[in-house]
């Protein structure tokens, strides 16, 4: 769900200019740990959806350890529904992802096949450590210009406009052009800035019911939190890539496939409690899906258009 705070007029003018240069983001994962009333329906607004093979390109901005990059790249690989089920024990990331395929069935559009594309490293902070939405769009343009979802991932020491104040991640798209059009996502590492807001339930929440933090499945609170937000934004991107796909409410603040189910990760979820998650007997980590390379992840519930309810695998 997109959210914005009231800012001085000069900043409003800057935002308008940025929207002229780069199409503004459509959806955002808000700071939210509470279970809200479910959306009755996500309406299809007859816009274009992603088609054909789609490359998911990762743009790493700032310093990430190789082990951190592997956690997220393995998650993206896990989204593939072609032959990956045999490599992922149930419940799997690929089965979770298939819920988004139901939206394409409603729109009579062929579901796109996602593949992990190129990975671009910018550990020199070429645009500084304080980024605007326009900076994020500029970074996203370093990925493929068409048939792509370009994902900008910012390190823990990078401040991004609205990060921790109103959002944990966003998605949008590039303007139409002769070279093509791509969708993009931004997600930040909240480990040092706001883990209680953007990495819950792996960190004590800063507001709402105070429940003990859970053990992160990959042993990295910031990165495991990024996976949750990336999963949410991937679902929003595929079902509403250009702002006129599936959503409910105003298009500048839409409820989308994952943001329609805030705070829900498993059956039995209630405010401050993510649900009855699986627990790894060796590490004590909480998770709800298995991914590629033997990984375990926590992903948000998705709104199932066939049942008009938030769907969980556990």
UniProtKB/TrEMBL annotation:
Similarity remark: Belongs to the EXORDIUM family.
PANTHER family: PROTEIN EXORDIUM-LIKE 5 (PTHR31279), PROTEIN EXORDIUM-RELATED (PTHR31279:SF54)
Signal peptide as annotated in the record: 1-27
Lineage: Eukaryota, Viridiplantae, Streptophyta, Embryophyta, Tracheophyta
Gene: LOC120111022
Protein's organism: Phoenix dactylifera (Date palm)
InterPro entries (alphabetical): EXORDIUM-like
Keyword Signal: yes
Pfam families membership: Phi_1 (PF04674)
Name this polypeptide is given: Protein PHOSPHATE-INDUCED 1 homolog
Entry GO CC: apoplast
Keywords carried by this UniProt record: Apoplast, Secreted, Signal
Protein's cellular compartments: Secreted, Extracellular space, Apoplast
